[in-house]
Structures are given as C-alpha cells and as structure tokens.
Amino acid sequence: MEIYPAIDLREGLVVRLTQGDFERSTVYGTDPAAVAASFARQGARWLHVVDLDGAKTGVVSNLPAIERIVGAFPGKVQLGGGIRSPETAALFLDRGVERLVLGTGALTDPPFLEAMLNHHPGRFYVGLDVRENRIAVSGWLGETDGDPRETMTSLASMGVAGFVYTDIMKDGMLSGPNLPVYRELVRTLPVPVVASGGIGSLSDLRDLRDAGVAGAIVGRALYTGAIDLSRALSLAETPVSGDAPC
After folding, report:
1. CA dist 106 → 8, 10, 83, 160 (Å)
2. Distance CA 159, CA 85 (A)
3. Which of 37, 51, 96, 114 could form a Cys-Cys staple with 70, CB 3.0–4.6 A?
4. What's the pLDDT tens digit per position in 141-171?
5. What confidence score (pLDDT) does residue 118 get?
6. Minimal CA–CA distance to 92: which of 120, 72, 118?
7. Predicted TM-score of the model (pTM)
8. Hey, how many other C-beta atoms are within 10 angstroms of the C-beta on 94?
9. Do residues 16 and 166 lie in contact, with contact meaning Cβ atoms separated by under 8 Å?
10. CA distances from residue 88 to 47, 80, 93, 206, 212 in whole angstroms, order as listed
11. Which of 166, 99, 155, 103 has its CA nearest to residue 129?
C-alpha cells in the first residue's frame, strides 16, 4: 500500500478542511514547498496535492505553489482540484505532475473524460467524493446523480486507471475510515482504489492495508502528530502476517 501525505492548498497556504466545509479551514503551513520537502525527508514517495480554490471555481488558482511543490519534492506528485479541460490537464502534466485526480470534469463532462482517456491513458484517476451515498462535485458544494459504486464500475469499464474515494463525512475527523465501503470496492472493482477520509491512527492504516486498498491519503493526522509518517510508511510495506505492535 502506498502512503500519500496530503497538501491541500487554499490561497497559497497549506490547510485542512473539516468534512469539506470551506468555513471550517485550519492553516497548517505558509510554505507548501517546505512541507513537501519535509515529507520527502521522512521517506514519502508520493504526495497528494489538492487545489481547493480550483476545485471550488474550476479555475487554476495555486499554480505557483504547485510548481514549487513539484520542484521541492523528488518523488511523484498526484494532483486534483479544478482540472476540467484538456488544456488544464496538459498544463500540470507539463510541469512535472505524475498523476491527475479528476473529479467534477470527469463526472459531468463526457467529452472531457473521453479526451483524457484518449490522450492521457494511465495518467489520471477519478476522484469520487461521497456524502451519504451522494457524489459531491464543484469543491463539494454541489452534487451529481448516480450511485457511487455503479458510477465507478462504469468508469472502470471505460478505461479509467483507478479511483480516489473520499468519504466526506469522515474527512478531517480522525475517526477512522469507512472500511466496509473500501472492502466492497476492492472486491468488486478491477482497478486500484486509494482511500481518503478519516484516517487518524496507524491502526486505521493497517486496516486499510489489510482491506487491500492500493493507497491511503493522510492529511490532518500528519499535521497534528497523530500519525508519524516514517512509521506509517514502514507499516504500509509490512506483510499482513508480519505486523509489529503499534
């Protein structure tokens, strides 16, 4: 399982939202590149970066900060937030982003999704942000029709390389991930699933690893010290039968 430390950007700052609420935002850093470099020193191979302003407006809003993050981090960067046109996707890929996470655009604009499947196969996942079994879009401010599991099955059959699934009601709460959902998704989908939302302890990461998810995005728990990144990385690489106590 891969561990993805999360850097959420709002107006150039590193923040975390609680349950996707822009009015419940906590600032954890003023220098995103320094945060990225710190995660690298602790052994992270991937970062998960979100342009929150872009997700809300559909306009690229934190490009300078994203460029600095890519420059400061020697590993791979996964980026989401406001990527709703082939031009925006190409902009980020050209600047060294390894993988894009598409949300609103992929879910509401079939021609855009088709263009991405044709021109950037394997370079993007689709992110499903789910609140009480409803798919949220536009920075979690709106919703779209469709059952999340049926939507993911359909997208996988079209050639989407993988998914980031976020349980919004768990996000930022440190109360544990929605394990039954992840177990079902791993069992039924033919592509990787990355878990996001509610991860607050090494035990949560162990449970996700044992459930078979391909990756786990960890945000607030790293910033508060609830999870030590180096220990999380070690746990993620440990075979299921060889765990040491946490």
Report:
1. 20, 22, 9, 10
2. 18
3. 96
4. 667 778 999 999 999 999 999 999 998 877 6
5. 94
6. 120
7. 0.91
8. 8
9. no
10. 19, 11, 9, 36, 32
11. 166
Which of 16-31 are b and which e, b meaning 16 or more Cβ less than 10 Å from the residue's Cβ? Answer: bbeebebeebeebeee
Q: Of the listed 129, 167, 171, 207, which one is catalytic? A: 129
167 is catalytic: no
Helix (H, G, I), strand (E, B) or coil at 156: helix
Strand 193-196 versus strand 99-102 pairing type: unpaired
Cβ atoms of 176 and 202 within 8 Å: the answer is no
Per-residue pLDDT reduced to its tens digit, 80-126 = 998 999 999 999 999 999 999 999 889 989 999 999 999 998 999 99
CATH number of the structural domain 2-242:
3.20.20.70
Are the C-beta atoms of residues 28 and 223 closer than 8 Å to each other? Answer: yes
Residue 90: CB atoms within 10 A of its CB come to: 12
pLDDT at 22: 78
- Among this protein's residues, is 243 annotated catalytic? no
Taking Cα atoms as reference points, which of 211, 171, 221 lies closest to residue 189?
A: 211
pLDDT confidence of 245, banded at 50, 70, 90?
A: very low
Distance between first and last Cα of the chain: 17
